[in-house]
Amino acid sequence: MNTNTERPRAGVRRNGFTLLELLVVLAILGLLYAIVGPQVIKYLGSSKSEAASVQVKNIDAALKLLRLDAGHYPSNEEGLQALVTQPQQMPNWRGPYLPGAAGLTDPWQHPYRYANPGKHGEVDVFSFGSDDVEGGTGEAKDLGNW
Predict the structure, then answer these.
(1) Would you call 126 exposed, middle or buried from its count of C-beta atoms within 10 A (0-12, 13-18, 19+)?
(2) CATH 3.40.1650.10 fits 53-144, yes or no
C-alpha cells in the first residue's frame, strides 16, 4: 500500500467571470436597452396624458356634484379651489368634493385650468399638456372635458 497520497493534478480553478463572459452580458443588455428602451419611454409619456384625461373627468364629475349642492358652478375667481375649500358665496357647499388640492395639478405639475362659461360646454376644465402652452401635439396636446 502506498501511504503517499498524491492528488491528481487538476487545472487551477478560479472563481469569477472571464472578460469575454462580461462582454457578452453587456452586449445583450445593450441590445435589450436599444430595443425595449424607446418603447418604455413612449409608454411612460402616454401614461401621463391618460392620467391627465382621467383626472379631468374626475374634476368635471366633482364640479357637477358641487353644482347639484350649491345650485351653480364656481365662478372663475373661486375656480377649482372651490372643490376643496368652501367659498363664502356657497352656503349649501357640502364638500370637499376632491380629497385634496393635489388633485388640481396635472401630471406635469401645472394647475388645471377652469373657465366659466366654457368655450366647449357650460364649464371647461383643461390642461395645456407638457408644454403648458395652448395647442400642440403628442404630450403637448391640450386635454379637456370636451
Answers:
(1) buried
(2) no
